[in-house]
Design goal:
single chain, 167 residues, 7 helices, mainly alpha, 0% strand
Length: 167
């Protein structure tokens, strides 16, 4: 079975159901916004807790994700993998105009490394945010903007980047 056929099977429950596609779009946007609000709030909390930008924990919480994000960005530009909707004759559930740079998923990477920062500082929230990252990965594949391997690579890279917080 090729990817076109797999994607058709994956998205069959959504096709012909505008409410389901709208729900997928809302989930996609909500999950992204949730993580991008949660991260600055955590950095603010760390600053308020220690009252200095030079606090080592605040520095690690900022620089590990930031540098990892830059490395992932350079890496995906080098790979420049086509997105599923570019490589296959599929109609994505959430249309995008982005070309290439599909591997690894930077959205999934970002939410995962943010979840890892939370896991280090607030374990229950970190665990919940790791689930949010996995849900985001599923949504990105269903949307048709990433392959499963793209989101898996983003998730694993985010976990490994986050492990550097402990060292």
């Amino acid at each position: 079975m090729n990817y076109e056929q797999r994607y058709a099977c994956l998205t069959r429950p959504f096709r012909g159901r505008p409410w389901a596609i709208t729900g997928l779009k809302i989930a996609n946007g909500t999950l992204v916004v949730l993580m991008y609000i949660a991260y600055p709030l955590l950095l603010i909390e760390l600053y308020l807790r220690h009252h200095t930008l030079l606090d080592p924990l605040l520095q690690r919480a900022f620089w590990v994700p930031a540098l990892s994000f830059l490395i992932v960005t350079v890496f995906r530009r080098k790979i420049n993998r086509l997105r599923p909707y570019e490589a296959w004759p599929i109609e994505p559930l959430i249309p995008r105009n982005k070309h290439g740079e599909s591997m690894p998923s930077r959205h999934v990477f970002s939410s995962t490394v943010i979840a890892m920062v939370y896991l280090y500082l607030h374990p229950p929230l970190g665990a919940a945010f790791l689930l949010v990252s996995l849900l985001s990965a599923v949504v990105r594949v269903l949307a048709g903007v990433h392959y499963p391997t793209d989101v898996m690579a983003g998730f694993v890279t985010g976990v490994f980047s986050g492990i550097f917080l402990w060292w």
